[in-house]
Amino acid sequence: MTEIQPNSQNLEDTATELLVKLRQKQGSWVEWGQAIAYLQKNGYNPQTIFEATGFEPIQQNQVIVGSQVYASMEKCGASAETLAYYKQKSSDVLYELRGLNQEDRANTADLTFEYKLDADVVRDIAKAVKDFSWFPNLPEGFSKHPGDAVAYQSWKFAKQKSDLSERSRLIAKGLRFVHSESARKQLEQLLMDFSVAPKVAPPILPFYRLESDEDLPRILPVIGELPLTPEVLKAVPLITEIQPFRIVKFAGEQAWVSLPGWKVLLNAEDPVVVIGNSDIFPNPHQSKVEAIMIVIDRAQREWDISNYFVFDNGESIDFQWFETAPKIPLLGKMIVLVRPKKVLDEEFTKDAWQIDE
């Protein structure tokens, strides 16, 4: 598969040609993903592409990511049958493999092709393969094959179940995808061994809620020491806060945010902040998805079972609790998740006389 090459002599003509092909849906979805990636790289935003082609932004992202997964499958030796099948359909299935490394993408795609699985099933399989890849040494009896990764996940969960119907369902799932004979024997042993292994619970997520204005002080620019000229005073730009955390951007493309002096932050050696949504972490008591600040201490890179860690997920950073020491390098420990302050009526609180009463 050849990548689309930019026409340096006439970028506009190249873009127009691609937009026409997308509007008429010429070629395969893999080519659509390449074309949309090219357009976005050269200044076309998703809304403009949608208006010109009918591809909604969420579809654009799916075919772009799916085409990247397809390219890695080609590179790492997915079967010819798998490549031919997925070149014509199922971009949503390949999208679910985005979190795997290139070799695992190719091998897992072969598995999903063999069983003709849909995206919902593949999402669970991709998670099983990803979790399996973190083991520094393969569990006894299981091979590196993605089918054995699914079998191991089923075997592990089945051992933790006392309900026989649920236990049987998990064993059947493992036997469906198992690859090696040794892994099959591990699953079949559970049909006679009904002992229940204790489940190791992940640590409680360290959420904090900003409750008062004092918890979130306003950040102001420091101009300098007196005496100062009027020109210096006027030269300071207006500082605009980005809600809901009052993030401030300074010249030089560096943003800063002020957090309270919680002990966990004072003890951190090299803390940094990233912004995300609360739904990227498992939380059964979560009532709504909201923006959160994720504080990472980059100095704490030694694994322990009581914390979540950040790691390189290939194309981006990701967060995970590891039940055992992973073989991948850790980039830091997640020490605090900060929720924004709840505001019942923002306009009401602006009037001082209403607050006083």
TrEMBL record:
InterPro entries on file: RAF1, Raf1_C, Raf1_cyn, Raf1_HTH, Raf1_N
Residue span, Rubisco accumulation factor 1 helix turn helix domain: 16-73
A single GO BP: carbon fixation
Domain Rubisco accumulation factor 1 alpha-helical: 86-191
Domain Rubisco accumulation factor 1 C-terminal residue range list: 205-342
Major localisation: cytoplasm
Subcellular location: Cytoplasm
Gene Ontology cellular component annotations, sorted alphabetically: cytoplasm
Function as written in the Swiss-Prot or TrEMBL entry: A major RuBisCO chaperone. Acts after GroEL-GroES chaperonin to fold and/or assemble the large subunit of RuBisCO (ccbL, rbcL). Cooperates with RbcX in RbcL folding, plays the major role in assembly of dimers into RbcL(8)-Raf1(8) intermediate complexes. RbcS replaces Raf1, leading to holoenzyme formation.
This protein's domain notes: Has 3 domains, the N-terminal alpha-helical domain, an extended flexible linker and the C-terminal beta-sheet domain. The 2 C-terminal beta-sheet domains are swapped and pack against each other to form the dimer interface.
Subunit structure: Homodimer. Forms an RbcL(8)-Raf1(8) complex. Forms complexes of many stoichiometries with RbcL with and without RbcS. RbcX and Raf1 can bind simultaneously to RbcL.
Protein name: RuBisCO accumulation factor 1
Species per Swiss-Prot/TrEMBL record: Dolichospermum planctonicum
Gene: raf1
